[in-house]
Design brief:
single chain, alpha+beta, 3-methyladenine DNA Glycosylase, Chain A, 5 helices, 30% strand, DNA-binding
DNA sequence: AGCACGATTAACT
DNA sequence: GTTAATCGTGCTC
């Protein structure tokens, strides 16, 4: 299957977040292939978005978000969790899509080893579970998802129809001010009937 | 140098 | 519904 090229990510973040649904996230780990279909993603767009890490301006932590599209922005939070994002838009504009949920479809036994016993559907149904299931941590911050030989990339797969996608407010924003807190920038693929 | 808190999760009541 | 775990980051002093 072809991999998503940089041009895919070099577009408005809301479009990228929406079109990442259904695509296959792949991580190559010790020669093994771990993968899953992206089922939930959400957009963080620029310094004006008060929920985005770029709200404080350019810092060492969010530096990758300011760079060119098609790179992984991986950050650490809550003292124990890693989060995986895909950088979007043009070089110099800080924006990214947080990958929140994948449905495992390859390398499930290895994911179970990394995550512990869990039903397949709950192996990677959260942003921190996803990174744990794939063995992703800060070493992949700044990784080029579009490079030949990338360890982490996204394969083209079928795009879900609009009727199976819902948009809702982003998760876990706490005291983020309006209107940012309520913007429906989280996209979810309704898989089950 | 010190501090409050976070794009979360699992294990509780 | 509530809470502890746990530490890098950015802000204040």
């Amino acid at each position: 299957m072809p991999r998503l090229p940089r041009a895919f990510f070099a577009r408005p973040t809301l479009v990228v977040a929406r079109e990442l649904l259904g695509q296959r996230l792949v991580c190559l780990r010790n020669g093994r292939r771990l993968s899953g279909l992206i089922a939930e993603a959400e957009a963080y767009i620029g310094e004006n978005d008060l929920a985005c890490h770029a709200r404080v301006g350019r810092t060492p932590r969010n530096e990758v978000m300011y760079g060119p599209p098609g790179y992984a922005y991986v950050y650490f939070t809550y003292g124990l969790h890693w989060m995986l994002n895909c950088v979007t838009e043009r070089d110099g504009f800080p924006a990214a899509v947080l990958l929140r949920v994948i449905v495992p479809d390859g390398g499930v036994e290895i994911m179970r080893r990394l995550r512990g016993q869990a039903p397949e559907a709950r192996l990677a149904n959260g942003p921190a579970k996803l990174t744990q299931a794939l063995g992703i941590d800060g070493e992949l911050d700044g990784h080029d998802l579009c490079a030949r030989g990338a360890k982490l990339f996204i394969e083209r797969a079928a795009l879900p129809p609009d009727s199976r996608i819902i948009a809702r407010p982003r998760v876990g924003l706490g005291d983020t001010p309006e209107p940012w807190k309520s913007k429906a920038w989280n996209f979810r693929w309704l898989i089950s009937d």
